């Protein structure tokens, strides 16, 4: 799901309203794939004062915009369908708030494939790049980390996969900057390439 630009626009607008001066590109570089804890740390470092409940307001605004604007990444639905048809266990392991993740999946029509298998860093107490949410998902699925495959598009997620000892494919579309360090992940630019990388296309 192409949710990151929406999250970051909300973060950027809120930081500006609190007196921050960073550009949207700086916001993207600092917070892509991160949680509100990273934003809190930045505001403390920069001496930016925010309302005590700013994170609750952020999640409220983000959910509202996601429900109206978020779209599936082109080709993602087809990949999910192929994986499901091949009886490959699927899950979402996200830094996002559980309610927000579920709302996003519902909006994009992908929820039926992930219902009951949505995991959030908010539930395990450590966000990516810590590997906790990936390891938690693997444990509940009864799959060893080295037998999992992670699909990621953020630096923190790529590092988390490496920290978890999980093979990883990095989605690096031409429309966004490629992370400077892929942490050993194999890059691909379009979702139609992923089935072949995952061995779903017969030789």
TrEMBL record:
Keyword Hydrolase included in the entry's annotation: yes
GO molecular function: hydrolase activity
Alphabetical keyword list: Hydrolase, Magnesium, Metal-binding
Pfam families for the chain: Hydrolase
Cofactor: Mg(2+)
PANTHER family named in the record: 6-PHOSPHOGLUCONATE PHOSPHATASE (PTHR46193)
Similarity annotation: Belongs to the HAD-like hydrolase superfamily. CbbY/CbbZ/Gph/YieH family.
Record-given protein name: Hydrolase
Native source organism of the sequence: Pseudovibrio japonicus
Taxonomic lineage: Bacteria, Pseudomonadati, Pseudomonadota, Alphaproteobacteria, Hyphomicrobiales
């Amino acid at each position: 799901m192409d949710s990151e630009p929406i999250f970051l626009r909300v973060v950027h607008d809120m930081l500006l309203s609190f007196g921050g001066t960073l550009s949207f590109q700086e916001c993207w570089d600092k917070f892509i794939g991160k949680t509100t804890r990273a934003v809190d740390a930045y505001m403390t470092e920069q001496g930016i004062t925010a309302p005590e409940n700013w994170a609750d307001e952020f999640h409220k605004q983000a959910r509202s915009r996601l429900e109206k604007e978020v779209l599936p990444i082109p080709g993602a639905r087809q990949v999910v369908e192929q994986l499901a048809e091949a009886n490959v266990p699927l899950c979402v392991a996200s830094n996002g708030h559980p309610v927000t993740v579920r709302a996003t999946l519902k909006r994009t029509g992908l929820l039926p494939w992930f219902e009951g298998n949505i995991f959030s860093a908010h539930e395990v107490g450590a966000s990516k790049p810590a590997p906790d949410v990936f390891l938690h998902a693997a444990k509940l699925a009864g799959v060893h980390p080295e037998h999992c495959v992670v699909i990621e598009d953020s630096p923190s997620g790529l590092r988390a996969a490496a920290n978890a000892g999980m093979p990883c494919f990095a989605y690096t579309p031409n429309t966004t900057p490629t992370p400077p360090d892929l942490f050993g992940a194999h890059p691909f630019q379009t979702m139609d390439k992923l089935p072949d990388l995952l061995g779903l296309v017969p030789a």
